[in-house]
Amino acid sequence: SREIILSGRLVEHEFIKRELQDRLNKYAPVARVKKLSTVAKEAACGAYIIGEGLVGGVHRKLVQNMGIGNIEASN
User: Fold this and answer.
1) Domain edges within the chain
2) 20, 11 in Cβ contact below 8 A?
3) What is the model's pLDDT at position 44?
4) Neighbour-count burial of 73, counting CB atoms closer than 10 A to its CB (0-12 exposed, 13-18 middle, 19+ buried)
5) What is the DSSP-derived secondary structure letter of residue 39?
6) Residues 11, 32: contact at Cβ < 8 Å?
7) Please, which pLDDT band fits residue 18 given cuts at 50, 70 and 90?
8) Nearest-angstrom CA–CA distance, 44 and 50
């Protein structure tokens, strides 16, 4: 199943999160990504999730769905 995952510090504001959920729910269920650390910034947590997925970890399906691992040469 598909879902839209929200991340970033702006989503911490309830009115922004609610507006995004209201607009995106018609496409797929909307979820907020769990922050992995109380110390690390949101971008660092996102980089960790992508890196971990690229090496075949728990987040591999997310990375596959995003097409990040599909590297093709382009000129």
Assistant:
1) 1-33, 36-69
2) yes
3) 85
4) exposed
5) S
6) yes
7) very high
8) 10
For the chain, give the percent of residues with pLDDT over 90: 35
CB atoms within 10 A of CB 4: 13
Nearest partner of 44 among 5, 6, 4, 8, judged by Cα: 8
Strand extents, DSSP E, the chain: 4-6, 30-32
Retrieve residue 25's tokens: 């729910």
Give the tens place of pLDDT for each residue, 29-54: 998 887 777 788 888 888 888 999 99
The H-or-E segment that residue 5 falls in is strand 4-6
Of 42, 40, 59, nearest to 32 (Cα)?
42
At 70, which amino acid appears? N
